[in-house]
Task: structure prediction
Amino acid sequence: MGEMTSKVSKKRVRKKIYGMILPIATENILQMTAGFISTGMLGRIGKVAISSFGISDRIIKILWALFKGITTGASVFVAQAYGSNNLKKLRKVVQQTLLSVIIVGIVLQQVIFWNAQRLLQFIYGPKPDILLNAVTYLKTVSWGIPFLGIMLVVAGVLQGMGNARTPMIIAFIMNIFNICFGYGLIFGNFGLPVLGIKGAAMAMAIGQFVAAMIGLYVLFNKKGVLGSLYNGNFFKIDIKQIASVYKLGAPTAFESIFWNVGSILLIRVILGYGDVAMASYQLGLQAEAISYMPAAGFSIAATAFIGQALGARDKKLGKTYLKETIKGSFMVTSISVILLVFFPKVILRLLTDEQEVINLGAKYLILMGLVQIPQNMSGVLNGALRGAGYTRVPMFVAGVGIWLIRIPFSYLLAYIFDLGIMAIWSVMCVDLVVRFLMSLTLYKKKDIYETELVFEE
Result:
């Protein structure tokens, strides 16, 4: 912890970055692969299953965004406390965040389970066959919500300390359980019942449960951050500390919630173009993960290492971390751009056999491929801003892009000018480019390397 110094060479900085990036990228690729396989299995059931999964999964992603915001706040605290060698503050942040997320997760699970149909009808108003399947999926997968929260806390804490290898291993185990149980429960293999989309939801919840249990062991074993039940005070709530973490993480949560709520409104537009358009969009999103899932690791690394550098009061080191992180993200993204732009149909054939969906989805992937570099560069800049405690800036950027560009122009082109689905997807591209320009401008205006720490030492 005390080895951070402005004399650290670029070679050593790269080694630390890639020592964190490679496990995160591997973890994200595992998540992407599991998503590919699960979506591919649902794709063999039909368009209704894909659409049902798409609309119900969006609600789960809103909850994921909430938890991710909370854990981002914790991760910034952890990174800066770790960089300044303040272990007492580090342990307290972890304990309070974990306790609060467990409580919040249980409450949210009950709300979702008992109100699944009302939520789906209110948000989407889908066709009866899609609604029936979506309710089944949402109610079933809701049982994994508390475990999802725990899993994200564990990953955020460890990544804030620069340990990305352990979350990668946990993700690997979770995805193995998800894929195996999915294959068994969706199609009735391994002597299990044929449950279709309900089986996919059960497999997801089982994987999250296993990951959460492993994560708790990692935190509470003798060498873990907490080591024991935090000296017997694990269940003692410190409202002030929880409020500090949530306040710092709230903008990140709102940033993701903006995106997910915007996606729900966008899905309402896309549903108006028919099942083929909806299935193409859903599978396109899954395929697009080839780019943003590996690149997301660079954003996380920027948050962790900028936070640690600030904790160590090393401005030069922070700038070096950011420069090398941007270079790495650009190289990785360039490879994914080639795949999305030149081989979209090859990718989509892994997910579905329906040629109509493949043809339309390929057009979506080509458009998205063209804007992956600005999208992922924006992610790195936002990660650096979060590491310095400027969590409101990325939220502001996301809010402008979604609510002033993506949503209003999509509705305008669809309902006023009656244009096709390609116009909607083109608006999404414009949104991503504008966000990149805003992130770059605001990063240059903020002197993040001179900011105060998020806690008083």
User: Anything to note?
Assistant: Residues 1-7 have pLDDT under 50 and may be disordered. The radius of gyration is 21 Å.
